Amino acid sequence: MSHTESSSAMRYRSRYPSTSPTVVARVCPVCGGTPPSRRSVYCKTACKQLAYRLRHQRLATVDPVVLGKQLQRQRLLVAHTVYECSSCGERFLGERRCPDCNLYARSVGLGGSCPDCETIILLADLLGQEVTAPSSAAGRSYPQPLDAGHPHNARSGP
Fold first, then answer.
1. What distances in angstroms separate CA 43 from CA 24, 26, 53, 57, one per listed residue?
2. Measured between alpha carbons, how far is 152 from 128 in angstroms, rounded to an integer?
3. H/E segment holding residue 111
4. Where are the alpha helices (DSSP H) in the chain?
5. End-to-end alpha carbon distance in the chain
6. Which residue, of 26, 40, 81, 117, is most buried by count of CB atoms within 10 Å of its CB?
7. Domain ranges, ordered by start, for the chain
8. Alpha-carbon gap, residue 118 to 103, rounded angstroms
9. H runs (alpha helix) in 84-149
10. How far apart are CA 100 and CA 85, in angstroms?
11. With 0-12 CB in 10 A as exposed, 13-18 as middle and 19+ as buried, what is 95?
12. pLDDT in tens, 119-146
Protein backbone atom coordinates (compact mmCIF):
# COMPACT_ATOMS: atom_id res chain seq x y z
CA MET A 1 0.00 0.00 0.00
CA SER A 2 1.45 3.37 -0.96
CA HIS A 3 1.64 6.44 1.21
CA THR A 4 -0.85 8.42 -0.93
CA GLU A 5 -3.40 5.63 -0.78
CA SER A 6 -3.27 5.37 3.01
CA SER A 7 -3.52 9.12 3.54
CA SER A 8 -6.69 9.37 1.45
CA ALA A 9 -8.40 6.57 3.38
CA MET A 10 -10.70 7.78 6.11
CA ARG A 11 -11.10 5.91 9.31
CA TYR A 12 -14.64 4.97 10.47
CA ARG A 13 -16.29 6.36 7.36
CA SER A 14 -17.46 4.72 4.21
CA ARG A 15 -15.31 5.02 1.12
CA TYR A 16 -18.44 5.34 -0.96
CA PRO A 17 -20.60 8.40 -0.49
CA SER A 18 -24.17 7.79 0.55
CA THR A 19 -26.88 8.48 -2.00
CA SER A 20 -29.55 9.05 0.65
CA PRO A 21 -29.98 12.48 2.20
CA THR A 22 -28.23 12.92 5.52
CA VAL A 23 -30.33 13.34 8.63
CA VAL A 24 -29.42 16.65 10.18
CA ALA A 25 -31.35 16.51 13.44
CA ARG A 26 -33.10 13.55 15.05
CA VAL A 27 -36.31 14.22 16.92
CA CYS A 28 -38.14 12.21 19.58
CA PRO A 29 -41.49 11.14 18.03
CA VAL A 30 -43.33 11.60 21.34
CA CYS A 31 -42.26 14.99 22.65
CA GLY A 32 -40.07 16.46 19.92
CA GLY A 33 -36.92 16.52 22.08
CA THR A 34 -33.45 15.55 20.97
CA PRO A 35 -32.36 11.93 21.62
CA PRO A 36 -29.08 11.63 23.57
CA SER A 37 -27.31 9.50 20.94
CA ARG A 38 -27.50 8.79 17.22
CA ARG A 39 -28.81 5.27 17.82
CA SER A 40 -31.62 6.13 20.24
CA VAL A 41 -35.10 6.94 19.02
CA TYR A 42 -36.60 8.47 22.17
CA CYS A 43 -35.08 11.20 24.29
CA LYS A 44 -36.18 9.87 27.70
CA THR A 45 -37.34 6.60 29.20
CA ALA A 46 -40.70 8.21 29.90
CA CYS A 47 -41.19 8.91 26.17
CA LYS A 48 -40.29 5.32 25.36
CA GLN A 49 -42.82 4.02 27.90
CA LEU A 50 -45.54 6.34 26.62
CA ALA A 51 -44.93 5.27 23.04
CA TYR A 52 -45.19 1.61 24.09
CA ARG A 53 -48.44 2.23 25.95
CA LEU A 54 -49.91 4.10 23.01
CA ARG A 55 -48.95 1.30 20.60
CA HIS A 56 -50.50 -1.37 22.83
CA GLN A 57 -53.62 0.53 23.82
CA ARG A 58 -56.89 -1.31 23.44
CA LEU A 59 -59.55 0.15 21.21
CA ALA A 60 -62.26 1.98 23.07
CA THR A 61 -65.66 0.33 23.12
CA VAL A 62 -68.88 2.25 23.50
CA ASP A 63 -71.55 0.71 25.68
CA PRO A 64 -74.85 2.56 25.15
CA VAL A 65 -76.08 1.66 28.66
CA VAL A 66 -72.98 3.09 30.36
CA LEU A 67 -73.05 6.14 28.08
CA GLY A 68 -76.72 6.73 28.94
CA LYS A 69 -75.99 6.55 32.67
CA GLN A 70 -73.10 9.01 32.33
CA LEU A 71 -75.29 11.44 30.42
CA GLN A 72 -78.03 11.05 33.02
CA ARG A 73 -75.58 11.85 35.83
CA GLN A 74 -74.47 14.97 33.93
CA ARG A 75 -78.12 15.91 33.26
CA LEU A 76 -77.52 15.80 29.50
CA LEU A 77 -79.54 12.69 28.65
CA VAL A 78 -82.53 14.53 27.16
CA ALA A 79 -80.28 16.77 25.05
CA HIS A 80 -78.62 13.70 23.45
CA THR A 81 -81.76 11.61 23.00
CA VAL A 82 -83.39 11.25 19.58
CA TYR A 83 -87.19 11.37 19.61
CA GLU A 84 -89.48 10.35 16.76
CA CYS A 85 -93.04 11.53 16.26
CA SER A 86 -95.47 8.62 15.90
CA SER A 87 -97.79 10.65 13.67
CA CYS A 88 -95.50 12.29 11.10
CA GLY A 89 -92.30 10.24 11.61
CA GLU A 90 -90.10 13.33 12.03
CA ARG A 91 -87.03 12.95 14.26
CA PHE A 92 -85.97 15.51 16.84
CA LEU A 93 -82.86 15.86 18.97
CA GLY A 94 -83.63 16.80 22.56
CA GLU A 95 -87.24 17.83 21.83
CA ARG A 96 -89.89 15.60 23.37
CA ARG A 97 -92.86 17.18 21.63
CA CYS A 98 -93.42 17.42 17.87
CA PRO A 99 -93.95 21.10 16.99
CA ASP A 100 -96.11 20.27 13.93
CA CYS A 101 -98.42 17.62 15.43
CA ASN A 102 -98.21 18.85 19.04
CA LEU A 103 -97.88 15.23 20.18
CA TYR A 104 -95.30 13.66 22.45
CA ALA A 105 -92.64 11.81 20.48
CA ARG A 106 -91.23 8.43 21.50
CA SER A 107 -87.60 7.99 22.47
CA VAL A 108 -85.65 6.13 19.77
CA GLY A 109 -82.17 6.19 21.35
CA LEU A 110 -79.02 8.21 21.90
CA GLY A 111 -77.72 10.28 19.02
CA GLY A 112 -76.71 13.64 17.67
CA SER A 113 -76.71 15.74 14.55
CA CYS A 114 -74.36 15.25 11.61
CA PRO A 115 -71.90 18.17 11.50
CA ASP A 116 -72.00 18.26 7.68
CA CYS A 117 -75.69 18.03 6.85
CA GLU A 118 -77.43 18.55 10.23
CA THR A 119 -79.28 15.22 9.84
CA ILE A 120 -80.17 13.58 13.13
CA ILE A 121 -78.16 10.36 13.52
CA LEU A 122 -78.59 7.59 16.05
CA LEU A 123 -75.58 6.19 17.86
CA ALA A 124 -76.75 2.72 16.86
CA ASP A 125 -76.65 3.76 13.17
CA LEU A 126 -73.04 4.85 13.50
CA LEU A 127 -71.88 1.82 15.46
CA GLY A 128 -73.84 -0.69 13.40
CA GLN A 129 -75.70 -2.04 16.41
CA GLU A 130 -79.31 -3.15 16.24
CA VAL A 131 -81.54 -1.57 18.85
CA THR A 132 -84.84 -3.34 19.32
CA ALA A 133 -87.95 -1.59 20.49
CA PRO A 134 -89.84 -2.66 23.60
CA SER A 135 -92.18 -5.65 23.27
CA SER A 136 -95.23 -3.38 22.89
CA ALA A 137 -94.03 -2.28 19.43
CA ALA A 138 -94.95 -5.71 17.96
CA GLY A 139 -91.69 -6.69 16.32
CA ARG A 140 -90.70 -3.36 14.78
CA SER A 141 -87.06 -2.49 15.21
CA TYR A 142 -85.42 0.90 15.52
CA PRO A 143 -83.58 2.80 14.15
CA GLN A 144 -84.82 3.09 10.61
CA PRO A 145 -81.94 3.21 8.10
CA LEU A 146 -81.07 6.59 6.71
CA ASP A 147 -80.05 7.39 3.14
CA ALA A 148 -77.46 4.80 2.08
CA GLY A 149 -75.62 7.32 -0.10
CA HIS A 150 -74.85 9.64 2.82
CA PRO A 151 -71.22 9.49 4.08
CA HIS A 152 -72.10 8.67 7.72
CA ASN A 153 -74.03 5.57 6.60
CA ALA A 154 -71.27 4.16 4.35
CA ARG A 155 -69.71 1.53 6.58
CA SER A 156 -66.48 -0.13 5.57
CA GLY A 157 -65.20 -3.36 7.01
CA PRO A 158 -67.03 -6.25 8.70
1. 16, 10, 16, 21
2. 11
3. strand 106-113
4. 3-8, 45-55, 64-73, 123-127
5. 68
6. 81
7. 26-57, 64-153
8. 23
9. 123-127
10. 10
11. middle
12. 898 888 887 765 443 333 444 444 444 4
